[in-house]
Amino acid sequence: LHEWARGSETGAPALRERVELMIALCDAVHHAHQRGLIHRDLKPGNVLVDRGGRPRVLDFGVARPADVDLGTSLVTTHGELVGTLAYMSPEQLAGDPNDLDTRSDIYALGVILYELLAGRAPLDLGKRPLEDALRAIREDDPPPLAQHDAQLAGDLTVIAAKAMAKDRQERYASANGLAMDL
After folding, report:
1. How far apart are alpha carbons 172 and 149 in whole angstroms?
2. Inter-residue contact 123 to 137 (CB < 8 Å)
3. What is the mean pLDDT of each run of 10 residues along the chain (182 residues)?
4. Of 23, 63, 82, 180, which one has the fewest beta carbons inside 10 Å?
5. CA separation (Å) from 40 to 109, 126, 128?
């Protein structure tokens, strides 16, 4: 995904193309959710953009069924962090697999959207100690998208913020809802 966003000799994709790609990515994730899967590690490295400009979600290695009883499953143990830190939702950081639902993937989609539009991560976690990075994900709000580019003011800023809401009750209920707003 990052390679696609950087573009080719003809330049980087226009804003409209980036939003359209994000809509297609939301559709792909919604398809997985409808089949009862939570990806748990959505990130640009797990999104391949084919020559036709269509995203393909890869690496379902840590995915789990959305409706599984984790008390009787060996899918994930309590306290185990699964995923890539910068794309993990606040509830995913708690390490309780029973507390995850598809809205954890919505959070990751919000981070991807932010990066795709702003050209940078919503939170700078790079050189922070782990404890500080965890706190930032749980507590710090990223700068509004419009702060990076005035053409992102308005709906796109609001949509990205809603997708990355700290409280999952305030996030989009589905990837389809995020796609519809985009």
Report:
1. 24
2. yes
3. 81 92 96 88 92 84 54 47 83 79 95 96 91 94 94 96 96 98 98
4. 180
5. 11, 21, 23
